[in-house]
């Protein structure tokens, strides 16, 4: 097996692990994942999520197809800028409780928390194109909500297994993301 194939396999397995067993992934493989790969996961996840929103509005005649493409670009920007920024803010908050994790670990873990959203985004686009479904709510929001568990696991890892703070912060972060998405969808 060549070097490119061996490099890809752990990255793909990390994406799946972050979706189904985030605590294990955080302990075993997140530190080995390049930060730019993690940010690419969140960019793709939100690009697909926002595209689903624009595409649903296009299919119902409320917006043109150019809005769907604009939505994808806005989602990519959201995943490239806002998600890492929220990860950095989360790290600053965790510094107050004396986390030993680095800011790059925190941002990478936070961005990888949206692995499930990326997978749901791909599935949503497939169901939208093949079956004609409107998928932004069924697949898009579900994917974003799926990230709550990995975000809680990330915070737990940063606070040495303190769950209460993780639940509160993950809920606030999830609400911020869904509220900002709803504002965008109302454009």
Mean pLDDT metric: 89
The biggest sheet, with number of strands, parallel, antiparallel or mixed sense and barrel status, is: none
Helical fraction: over 70%
Reading the helices and strands in chain order gives HHHHHHHHH
**Uncertain regions: pLDDT < 50 for 5+ in a row?**
1-8
Distance between the termini: 48 Å
- Sheet-strand content, in percent, reads under 5%
Number of helices: 9
Q: What's the structural domain tally?
A: 1
Shape: elongated
Number of beta-strand segments = 0
Structural category = mainly alpha
Written account of the structure:
The chain is built from nine helices and no strands. The protein has 187 residues and is an all-alpha fold. It has one domain (33-185). Helix 1 packs across helix 2 (22-28) and helix 4 (65-96) packs across helix 5 (103-112). The longest helix has 32 residues, at 65-96. The protein is elongated. It starts with a helix and ends with a helix. Mean pLDDT is 89; it is low at 1-8.
Summarize the structure.
The protein contains 9 helices and no strands. It has 187 residues and is an all-alpha fold.
Keywords:
187 residues, mainly alpha, 9 helices
Helices, strands, pairings?
Elements: H1 3-20, H2 22-28, H3 35-59, H4 65-96, H5 103-112, H6 115-131, H7 136-146, H8 148-158, H9 163-185
Helix pairs in contact: 1-2, 2-8, 3-4, 3-5, 3-6, 3-7, 4-5, 5-8, 6-7, 8-9
């Amino acid at each position: 097996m060549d070097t490119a194939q061996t490099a890809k396999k752990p990255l793909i397995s990390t994406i799946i692990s972050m979706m189904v067993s985030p605590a294990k992934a955080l302990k075993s493989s997140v530190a080995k994942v390049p930060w730019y790969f993690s940010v690419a996961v969140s960019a793709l996840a939100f690009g697909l999520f926002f595209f689903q929103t624009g595409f649903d509005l296009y299919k119902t005649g409320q917006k043109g197809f150019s809005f769907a493409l604009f939505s994808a670009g806005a989602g990519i920007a959201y995943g490239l800028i806002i998600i890492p920024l929220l990860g950095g803010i989360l790290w600053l908050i965790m510094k107050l409780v004396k986390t030993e994790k680095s800011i790059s670990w925190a941002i990478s873990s936070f961005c990888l928390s949206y692995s499930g959203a990326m997978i749901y985004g791909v599935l949503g686009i497939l169901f939208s194109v093949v079956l004609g479904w409107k998928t932004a709510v069924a697949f898009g929001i579900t994917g974003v909500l799926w990230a709550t568990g990995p975000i809680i696991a990330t915070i737990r890892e940063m606070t040495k297994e303190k769950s209460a703070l993780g639940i509160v912060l993950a809920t606030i972060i999830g609400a911020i993301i869904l509220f900002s998405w709803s504002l965008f969808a109302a454009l």
